[in-house]
């Protein structure tokens, strides 16, 4: 089940609030960063994400990457075309719309085999 994937898989929920708030920057995985064998579901559980917040994916370039995917691709670990990967090692994604967001790593078998 995708919600139990600890590697390169994360789902978050962003909300829109009627008040204007300063954007918050979240380092995905905190000190661990975007890595393998980490429970991103637990990491995101107690956080409140808002439109305008920034997700920072930190990792060693070449060892991981980030794909923004839909829920079906997340569940099935369907890796998009390589040219859609974000892969700098310090990737910033601004939450532009409310709702669930899904991210996976497409390097090797990170998404499919670490859950």
TrEMBL record:
InterPro entries: Cupredoxin, Phytocyanin-like, Phytocyanin_dom. Keywords: Signal. Residues 24-115 form the Phytocyanin domain. It holds the Pfam family Cu_bind_like. Gene3D superfamilies: Cupredoxins - blue copper proteins (2.60.40.420). Residues 1-23 form the signal peptide. It comes from the Eukaryota. This is Phytocyanin domain-containing protein. It comes from Vitis vinifera (Grape).
């Amino acid at each position: 089940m995708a919600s139990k994937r600890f590697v390169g898989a994360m789902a978050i929920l962003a909300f829109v609030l009627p008040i204007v708030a300063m954007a918050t920057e979240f380092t995905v995985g905190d000190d661990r960063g975007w890595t393998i064998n980490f429970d991103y579901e637990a990491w995101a559980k107690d956080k409140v994400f808002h439109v305008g917040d920034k997700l920072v994916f930190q990792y060693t370039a070449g060892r991981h990457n980030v794909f923004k995917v839909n829920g079906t691709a997340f569940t099935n670990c369907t890796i998009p075309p390589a040219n859609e990967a974000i892969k700098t090692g310090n990737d910033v994604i601004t939450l532009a719309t409310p709702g669930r967001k899904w991210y996976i790593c497409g390097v090797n078998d990170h998404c499919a085999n670490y859950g």
